[in-house]
Specification:
Blueprint (H helix, E strand, L loop, with lengths): L13 E10 L2 E10 L5 E8 L18 E3 L7 E4 L2 E6 L4 E6 L1 E5 L4 E2 L1 E7 L2 H7 L3 H8 L4 E4 L4 E6 L2 H7 L10 E9 L13 E2 H19 L7 E11 L2 E12 L19 H8 L2 H8 L2 H16 L13 H22 L5 H6 L2 H12 L5 H15 L10 H23 L5 E2 L8 E2 L13
Amino acid sequence: MFLDKDLVGQQQDVELFNNIGHLDDTEGRLTVWLAINQTPRLHWEFEAARGEYNFDSLSFEPPPKKLNSWDGSDPRLVVEKPTFTFRGGRRRQSRGYAEQVVYGDIKSNAHYFDFYLPNTDFLREATGSNLGAITKALKCESFKVEIGSDWSVEFSTTQEALDWLKPEVQNRGSMITLKIRLFQTKQASTKIQDLLNISLSNSSKIISDLCLMLSYINGGYIKPIYVIAKKFVDIETDRIGIEDVASLAEAPLIVPQEELGQGCIRYFGMKDLLNFVQCFPTFQRMLQNSNWREKWIVLLEWYFQAIPRAFGRRRNVLLPVVANALGTLLENLARIILVEEGTLSKNKFGKLSAMDRINELLNRLGVSGDNSVVNDFVKIRNNSTHAKSTPISLTEIQQWEVVQKGVQWVDEVVLWRLGYGGQYRERNLQSIQGIQPRYDLSQRDSSW
């Protein structure tokens, strides 16, 4: 299951294992493969080799207690949480799905890790769909950024992957479009024994948190489906080799290409993307706060409802659905920023109207001049939520422009909280340009 080739651009199934294995106490041939399109999924098939095959026990429950490579194999392959979808036939087969496949010891330390992710549309936006132009402009073949004092990440993709991501092409399903390499920030010593190392298990937790942050700018959930851990070893006195340590394949719930929303990264905003990734330590500290940790996924769900893309499956979403999701999202952000992390009491916050809460939130950021738009937005949101409607002297197009402004407020709250100082997408129906921050970073809490 140590895959040697680069998987960026891969859409076809990838075979992970095809050898002798065990299903509970039965020996036979075990085949495991990773399906990428239409949605990532881990499949397994087991064909009994010898011995009695009990056709009286071909139920789907309970699931297998053990499904792994043969006992003497090194490294060992283990199929985690397998379930049955078929049992029987002349070939004495069992087939099913799995949550995770582990090869080797994921708790052993390694020096760097390659993670492969599907449907990373934020990278298409940041590169302007032109990898050659952006690498020439930045004078680099890939994109590296520090995410802390000890570790850095490198983003790698291909023009083929970026072309597949273009919304106007209207591709569906999934393709691996990004490799993230987690590696050590430059060390004082070049001796192998002095280099930092962590386990694949711990590195996966780091990248999982990073993906929670990147999902926000991607307009939909992303997560790795395959990772391989490697370490440096001394071969001779003056030579260093590389050994595979462990690998892991997963089938997480991600958003297919056609359902992704419009993120906040501007077109040709590669430097902005790297600046955003540098905010990761702040995001990690946010996740240590129970208010953000418990709410982040829910906030993302509301946000994704509010950012349908012009060429996506949700392009015909109704205005009331978007306005309602945005209103709920803004009020939750206001509670976190003003009450949980601010000085406003719950009692006083509860007495504020929806319009006052949004205005107080924007004032906290240092954003001013949007009061009349806030008033229009609250009317639109209330009409979307309640049975009784208030007349609004705006056309439907004008109401959509107001709602787009609401999306921009959400972007500004999140980016301000992260301490992001780069440009971001101006939210309106006409422009794809970026704007400088309207918020004041000096008003952030120093402890953040």
